[in-house]
């Protein structure tokens, strides 16, 4: 059995609990151990980021923090990612299909990553053949994904030998992958078990004493899912796992542990946070003992912290290639991205209800207009938008009254296309009702789903929810059995964000037009949906 966070691993539960309590009180300091174990002790440092999403503008800070970790334990540091390194990225990286981010990872020396859902934004083949191509130097991990020819560059785990210690990194992606991927992509992805059970399976194999199937002294789990979901999993990560890094929800989370005491840490997003931990290892294989300690006294290093941990940090010489890469990417982005699209008077701001309604309506109108410009969507009558697909806080992000290509694509950075599907009138009514949500005080707010401005409805509210008594499209009443062609992004129309009513439709078609482009074309045309052909 491997050791667990902030204590030793012992086979007797009572001993485990005693040492866990002692280690907690000591806030990460070493628990006293037998002299033989101390004599054999090696220290390995792990630095982890998650959900970077191509935010190369933070690359210099990440490089500085990784270099600080390497100075802390020279030659014995491994830098890893817990997924979503690419995808949903700001314009300078996205416009080059995240090539700048992959190149930056190479400069950082990042060679291990769990596969996140956004690595699949452009499809399985794109992930396998381009993102996970061996020449990028990253071992991509997801033990719960069924291995097929399309995933030939995906692994369950990878090993690193550092300071005489064999460290296994075992990866997994969220169990809820189907809710965050378009159905057109998900058809090529099959989860063979839960993330936790898959990681346990691999950890057990690497800890069974059989050198022929691989043995590890330390097992580190990289799970692209929320720290609390992992901590509360009904199966639970087992005692062969020493440290767990999580992601997916863009949160800074510490203080969680597996039932055996291994720390579970989630390091925020966008390169704003780095987790850095020391593993103090004695013994080897299934008899190894591992203690986890925060390298710099706290689990997470945050970019917002004003005080540097030590004077040494001020003298770090970071790799100038990171700065050069960002400068080149920004120059390329400026040429194509800082092109004005339209002047706007609306705030289109997500921070208040009026701005959210205006923004969601605008995106839905743009979807309708974009569909009507294609042969597949020429007969579209209603546009929808899901707020969860919008990345930035405002469309006119700098507030100068002009929307640029870059601002539009940054807001709609996810790799969705515009799509259409035919629903009956009853389901359209149900979706229109779902644009409303109520808060804990029972007050109803209209911002859960965007609906195009050509739709009007007679709505009543009650304790039972929202009822659409009558619905009109372009002033024409709709009956429940009437077929209606609706449009929105491909993720939404395949049931994304829980809007399963779209799955009742018929004749789903992807128009092949990026949903960000529908907004750009719509604004350039003056912001009025063109008439049906």
Strand content: 25-35%
- What is the residue-averaged pLDDT? 89
First-last Cα distance: 68 Å
CATH architecture of the largest domain: 4-Layer Sandwich
Instruction: Report the uncertain regions.
Output: 3-37, 306-312
- CATH hierarchy class name of the largest domain: Alpha Beta
Structural Rg = 25 Å
Q: Give the full name of the CATH homologous superfamily of the largest domain.
A: Metallo-dependent phosphatases
The general outline is globular
GO cellular component, one term: outer membrane-bounded periplasmic space
Protein name: 5'-nucleotidase
Keywords: Hydrolase, Nucleotide-binding, Signal
GO biological process, one term: nucleotide catabolic process
Notable characteristics:
6-stranded mixed sheet, 26 strands, disordered N terminus, 8-stranded mixed sheet, 5'-nucleotidase,  domain 2, alpha/beta, single chain, Purple Acid Phosphatase, chain A, domain 2, 533 residues, 14 helices, 26% strand, signal, 2 domains
What report would you give on this structure?
- With about 525 residues, this protein is an alpha/beta fold.
- It folds into two domains: about 325 residues, Metallo-dependent phosphatases (Purple Acid Phosphatase, chain A, domain 2, 4-Layer Sandwich); about 180 residues, 5'-Nucleotidase, C-terminal domain (5'-nucleotidase,  domain 2, Alpha-Beta Complex), CATH 3.90.780.
- Helix content is about 25%, strand content about 25%.
- The strands form six sheets. Strands 1, 2, 3, 4, 5, 12, 13 and 14 form an eight-stranded mixed β-sheet that branches. Strands 6-7-8-9-11-10 form a six-stranded mixed β-sheet.
- Strand 8, helix 9 and strand 9 form a beta-alpha-beta unit.
- The longest helix has 20 residues.
- The chain is globular, with a radius of gyration of 25 Å.
- This is 5'-nucleotidase.
- Keywords: Hydrolase, Nucleotide-binding, Signal.
């Amino acid at each position: 059995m491997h050791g667990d966070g902030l204590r030793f691993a012992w086979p007797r539960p009572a001993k485990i609990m005693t040492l866990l309590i002692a280690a907690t009180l000591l806030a990460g300091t070493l628990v006293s151990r037998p002299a033989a174990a101390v004599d054999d002790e090696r220290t390995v440092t792990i630095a982890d980021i998650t959900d970077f999403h191509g935010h190369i503008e933070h690359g210099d800070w990440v490089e500085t923090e990784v270099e600080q970790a390497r100075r802390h334990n020279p030659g014995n540091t491994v830098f890893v990612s817990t997924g979503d390194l690419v995808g949903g990225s700001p314009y300078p990286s996205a416009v080059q299909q995240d090539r700048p981010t992959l190149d930056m990872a190479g400069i950082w020396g990042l060679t291990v990553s769990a596969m996140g859902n956004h690595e699949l934004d452009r499809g399985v083949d794109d992930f396998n053949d381009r993102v996970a191509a061996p020449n990028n130097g990253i071992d991509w991990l997801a033990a719960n994904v069924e291995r097929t020819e399309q995933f030939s560059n995906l692994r369950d785990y990878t090993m690193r030998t550092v300071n005489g210690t064999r460290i296994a990194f075992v990866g997994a992606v969220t169990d809820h992958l189907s809710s965050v991927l378009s159905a057109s992509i998900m058809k090529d992805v099959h989860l063979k078990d839960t993330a936790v059970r898959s990681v346990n399976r691999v950890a057990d194999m690497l800890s069974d004493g059989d050198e022929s199937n691989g043995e590890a002294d330390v097992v580190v789990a990289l799970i692209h899912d929320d720290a609390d979901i992992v901590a509360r999993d009904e199966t639970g990560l087992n005692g062969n796992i020493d440290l767990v890094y999580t992601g997916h929800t863009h949160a800074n989370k510490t203080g969680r542990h597996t039932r055996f005491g291994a720390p579970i840490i989630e390091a925020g997003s966008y390169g704003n946070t780095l987790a850095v931990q020391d593993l103090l290892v004695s013994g080897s294989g299934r008899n190894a003992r591992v203690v986890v300690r925060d390298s710099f006294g706290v689990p997470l290093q945050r970019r917002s912290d004003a005080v540097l941990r030590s004077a040494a940090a001020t003298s770090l010489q970071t790799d100038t290639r990171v700065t050069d890469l960002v400068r080149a990417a920004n120059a390329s982005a400026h040429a194509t991205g800082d092109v004005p699209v339209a002047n706007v008077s609306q705030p289109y701001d997500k921070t208040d209800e009026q701005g959210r309604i205006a923004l969601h309506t605008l995106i839905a109108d743009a979807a309708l207009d974009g569909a009507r410009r294609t042969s597949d969507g020429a007969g579209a009558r209603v546009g929808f938008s899901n707020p969860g697909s919008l990345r930035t806080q405002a469309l006119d992000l700098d507030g100068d009254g002009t929307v640029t290509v870059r601002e539009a694509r940054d807001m709609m950075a996810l790799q969705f296309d515009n799509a259409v599907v035919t629903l009956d009138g009853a389901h359209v009514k149900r979706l229109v009702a779902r644009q409303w949500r109520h808060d804990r005080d029972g007050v109803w707010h209209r911002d859960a789903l965007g609906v195009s401005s050509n739709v009007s409805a007679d709505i009543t509210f009650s304790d039972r929810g929202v009822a659409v008594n009558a619905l009109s499209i372009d002033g024409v009443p709709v009956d429940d059995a009437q077929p209606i062609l609706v449009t929105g992004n491909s993720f939404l129309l395949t049931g994304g964000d829980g809007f399963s009513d779209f799955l009742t439709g018929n004749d789903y078609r992807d128009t092949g037009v990026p949903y960000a482009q529908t907004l750009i074309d719509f604004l350039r045309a003056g912001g009025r949906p063109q008439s049906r052909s």
